[in-house]
């Protein structure tokens, strides 16, 4: 390794930023826990990069004694299988890197001997049902791939991010993304593809209603494991319902058909939470405030000629509301302000940036 005979002081660094994604047809349940292979296809929308996102800096230096990671400023262990899978898969694809300014030359083979330090920061609540694992692992894999000069395309990288957290495979792309469950036992065909880019349907406005930023009691990983073990409704959902729904959702997205998009999104969110209730012991991710938001959206949609808003809730109480356009988003915020009056400090900041991209209701 050129450079290491001088001083062992060089550091190479890459920083990446990745938005989170919210599923409109949910992934819930694995057929393989280690490789993270799902029981059904899923479809998501990737948020605007200025919205909820993860920023990750990865660095490498001969002076690093071991791989280490800090999440939101606190050191976390990398010993878990998921981090190890991502690091192993990226290292296996690493290529030569040359930094002439620093006089550093790293050959393919060197990467297995070098250690990395990772610092990651989420600009939104971690482990609260806003898909931090999705943005987090997608960003980690992307940043490591850049650092190690990995030549794989986004879909191939998505199959690696998937091994960190299933939902992460969809955050490698913007716009609407499908995670194809795949058939192979080794997971090689379980990856994400882009259905439509971010410009395809740019009338939509996404508003996140933060009901609680507290960490959820049941992680997505253990929640879906319990569901697979105990829910018969999940079997029916995965085999009979989702395959047809995926086709309809693809069509709705292709045609920018908001009525169909909204109906499918809301129904799928509700069925996912029904499957959680069908788990033994039952898992409650939504709370009374979440239910109130559903009622407000349903009532409003039914009072109009066609739906104005779609709602979806991941594994947590926080609402993701997708308004059909800017006008509908303004009316939606007015409704939220009416039903959940904020304190005056919050109100000022909402009004300065109207319509806001997130709206804090609880906490
Ligand atoms: P969420 O609904 O936020 O995705 P999960 O239970 O699915 O919640 O995942 C939370 C876990 O994801 C965290 O405990 C952590 O292990 C991992 N995670 C969150 N953010 C990051 C990040 N920026 N980088 C790497 N891993 C992360
Ligand atoms: C409800 O991807 O967080 O958000 O694969 O175990 O890390 P692991 O789970 P995760 O589960 C996401 C579940 C969901 C729906 C979705 O994003 O499709
Ligand atoms: Co998650």
UniProtKB/TrEMBL annotation:
Source organism phylogeny: Eukaryota, Viridiplantae, Streptophyta, Embryophyta, Tracheophyta
What is its biological role? Answer: Performs the first committed step in the biosynthesis of isoprene-containing compounds such as sterols and terpenoids.
The enzyme's E.C. designation: 4.1.1.33
Q: What residue intervals traverse the membrane?
A: none
Provide the catalytic activity annotation: (R)-5-diphosphomevalonate + ATP = isopentenyl diphosphate + ADP + phosphate + CO2
GO CC terms, sorted: cytosol; peroxisome
Alphabetically list the UniProt keywords: ATP-binding, Lipid biosynthesis, Lipid metabolism, Lyase, Nucleotide-binding, Peroxisome, Steroid biosynthesis, Steroid metabolism, Sterol biosynthesis, Sterol metabolism
Official protein name in the record: Diphosphomevalonate decarboxylase
GO terms of molecular function: ATP binding; diphosphomevalonate decarboxylase activity
Protein's cellular compartments: Peroxisome
The UniProt record lists the Diphosphomevalonate decarboxylase-like N-terminal domain at 19-192
Top-level enzyme category: lyase
Q: Does the keyword DNA-binding apply?
A: no
Query: Which GO BP annotation is one of this protein's?
Result: sterol biosynthetic process
What does the similarity note say? Belongs to the diphosphomevalonate decarboxylase family.
Which parts of the sequence belong to the Mvd1 C-terminal domain? 206-363
Look up the coiled coil feature and give its residue ranges: none
The species is Trifolium subterraneum (Subterranean clover)
């Amino acid at each position: 390794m050129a450079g290491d005979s001088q001083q062992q002081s060089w550091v190479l660094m890459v920083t990446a930023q990745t938005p989170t994604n919210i599923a409109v047809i949910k992934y819930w349940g694995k057929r393989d826990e280690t490789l993270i292979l799902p029981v059904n296809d899923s479809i998501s929308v990737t948020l605007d990069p200025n919205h909820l996102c993860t920023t990750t800096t990865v660095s490498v230096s001969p002076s690093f004694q071991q791989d280490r990671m800090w999440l939101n400023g606190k050191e976390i262990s990398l010993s878990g299988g998921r981090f190890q899978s991502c690091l192993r898969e990226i290292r296996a694809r690493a290529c030569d890197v040359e930094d002439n300014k620093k006089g550093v030359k790293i050959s393919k083979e060197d990467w297995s001997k070098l250690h990395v330090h990772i610092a990651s920061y989420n600009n939104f609540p971690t482990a609260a049902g806003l898909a931090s694992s999705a943005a987090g692992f997608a960003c980690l894999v992307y940043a490591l791939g850049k650092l190690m000069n990995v030549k794989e395309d986004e879909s191939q990288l998505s199959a690696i991010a998937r091994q960190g957290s299933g939902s992460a495979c969809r955050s490698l792309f913007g716009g609407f993304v499908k995670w194809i469950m795949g058939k192979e036992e080794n997971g090689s065909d379980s990856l994400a593809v882009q259905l439509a880019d971010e410009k395809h349907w740019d009338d939509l406005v996404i508003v996140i209603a933060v009901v609680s930023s507290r960490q959820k009691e049941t992680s997505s990983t253990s929640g879906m494991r319990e569901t697979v073990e105990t829910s018969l409704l999940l079997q029916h959902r995965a085999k009979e319902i989702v395959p047809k729904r995926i086709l309809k959702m693809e069509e709705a997205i292709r045609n920018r058909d908001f009525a169909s998009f909204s109906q499918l999104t809301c129904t799928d969110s509700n069925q996912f939470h029904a499957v959680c209730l069908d788990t033994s012991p039952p898992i409650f991710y939504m709370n009374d405030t979440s239910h109130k938001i559903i009622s407000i959206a349903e009532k409003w949609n039914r009072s109009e000629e066609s739906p104005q808003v779609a709602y979806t809730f991941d594994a947590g109480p926080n609402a993701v509301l997708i308004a059909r356009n800017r006008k509908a988003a303004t009316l939606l915020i007015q409704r939220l302000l009416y039903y959940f009056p904020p304190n005056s400090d919050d109100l000022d900041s909402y009004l300065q940036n109207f319509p806001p991209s997130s709206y804090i209701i609880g906490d």
